[in-house]
Amino acid sequence: MNIIMSMTWKELLRKRVMLLTLIMTVVFLVGFWFVARAIGGDASLQGMDPNSIEHLMIRFSNGAIILTLGFFFGAFVIAFLAIFSSFSALAGEAEQGVLQALLPRPLPRWKWYLGRWLGYVTLGIGYALLLFIAILFIAEANAAIPRDTMALVKSFLLFSSVVPMLITVSMLGSGFLSAIGNGVFMTMLYGAGWLGGMIDNLSYSMPLAPKAMNSLQNMTGIISMLLPADGLQRRMMVELFSVNEILGMNPLNDSPFGISDLSSIPSNAFVAYAALYTAAVFLIGVLRFQRKDL
């Protein structure tokens, strides 16, 4: 299993998708630095006492906007890395004859599947950690950000939890669909989940009738249940800024991609559902691979 995991690392590092991701990450971070610098250089801060509460609140609000923008686009980067690194995990290698060469050896299929999964997940989480630290560093250099260690740890765990979820669903889809078909399916599924979360977030600021609001929330709730990745990202921002603990003072209100209403915050039950969802899909994927004709 360790051999399969290390083989997955080497394969991912050779793939152009990994190289392209790293190049685009550098471009993103450079652009993000200038955006953060522009937001952090708020004209209203000039001439203000740096030790005043008002100065601190403005810097904290600017930091919320910077971090929300950074993690909004950062979530897309790690999501597409997770999807496009694993969308051909089974179908692509079966088509190339790799599985036929490896699995006749005394290697249980579940160990091969787990080794592949661990390889994709560990590399994806390692990349997510580097991106998480880089976004925090840029935001800290240009504004005020939360420094509570526990909040940072919780937010990173939620930020990176999207990686194993998407890889698990992608590997399951690879057991049913062709490599290209699975890539298209995963992209559309992730896009639908993101759109559902965005509509749910914006619905609280829309002047809708109660019946229409309930219908809209039911629809977005179903979409979120199909792939709860976007909900985890919104909960990550909540944990980062400890929104539940500041008595209605929501610094994400100033952000175009933030939490517009406290009632839209994903609950602990939703996080537990996401964990069970990932575990259940992983088990189904293993069982499917055990029965798959190569």
Keywords:
294 residues, mainly alpha, 76% helix, 0% strand, globular
Number of helices: 11
In whole angstroms, the N-to-C terminal distance is 20 Å
Overall average residue pLDDT: 81
* Overall SS class: mainly alpha
Shape: globular
Spatial extent as radius of gyration: 21 Å
Low-confidence stretches: none
Number of strands: 0
Largest sheet: none
What's the helix-strand series?
A: HHHHHHHHHHH
Helix content: over 70%
Question: How does this model look, in words?
Answer:
With 294 residues, this protein is an all-alpha fold. It is 76% helix and 0% strand. It has helices at residues 2-14, 16-40, 53-86, 91-96, 98-102, 109-142, 149-174, 179-203, 210-226, 229-241, 268-291. It is globular. The two termini are 20 Å apart.
Question: In brief, what are we looking at here?
Answer:
With 294 residues, this protein is mostly helical. It has helices at residues 2-14, 16-40, 53-86, 91-96, 98-102, 109-142, 149-174, 179-203, 210-226, 229-241, 268-291.
Element layout with pairings:
Elements: H1 2-14, H2 16-40, H3 53-86, H4 91-96, H5 98-102, H6 109-142, H7 149-174, H8 179-203, H9 210-226, H10 229-241, H11 268-291
Helix pairs in contact: 1-6, 2-3, 2-6, 3-6, 3-7, 3-8, 6-7, 6-11, 7-8, 7-10, 7-11, 8-9
